[in-house]
Amino acid sequence: SQKIEQNSEALNIQEGKTATLTCNYTNYSPAYLQWYRQDPGRGPVFLLLIRENEKEKRKERLKVTFDTTLKQSLFHITASQPADSATYLCARGNYQLIWGAGTKLIIKP
Amino acid sequence: NAGVTQTPKFRVLKTGQSMTLLCAQDMNHEYMYWYRQDPGMGLRLIHYSVGEGTTAKGEVPDGYNVSRLKKQNFLLGLESAAPSQTSVYFCASKKTADNSPLHFGNGTRLTVT
Description:
The complex is a heterodimer of chains A (109) and B (113). Chain A has 109 residues and is mainly beta. Helix content of chain A is 0%, strand content 56%. In chain A, a hairpin with a 3-residue loop joins strand 9 (86-93) and strand 10. With 113 residues, chain B is mainly beta. In chain B, the strands form two sheets. In chain B, strands 2, 4, 5, 6, 9, 10 and 11 form a seven-stranded mixed β-sheet that branches. In chain B, strand 4 and strand 5 form a beta hairpin. The chains are: A mainly beta (109), B mainly beta (113).
């Protein structure tokens, strides 16, 4: 079965540094990978989508990469800020997404 | 635009009771979804709908029923609640079948005692 795996341990990063989160998938490469942000008590909010034929996608301080050889997507936040603290989810699929459990990111001032 | 609105925000049920969770979206989206989110697990799809009057089962449909009588509303019903259904429930919608992003409500926290 298809699976999405994200690091379950919280990631602690110093403010101003780059935070890198990992999303690994099994079986065949998904056509798309999506990244969402979830704050406590709120629903996930869409951030970025990357297609399998794209190596990299950027949006302001956010960057997503897609490595079909490693079966992995990396999500980077540059110049991180305490306001970036949240849980970040990745998902694969099309109209039926398969979700990772998310990685909690903590940016320390 | 309000986006996706879920009611209620919190609910406590006793085992065997029934309830309906309401999801409303004002974005004219065709696709709507019900997920549950449990600690340490990814969002799991309960049921979904690809248009008014249509519904389909997701990954964990047992114990739940849904209806999509109007395009903007998607109802999730629990006929006989069980403690295993204690969870946070999220509704989401999207415009089309392709890679358009999901828009989520802020969830309903349900506790079944």
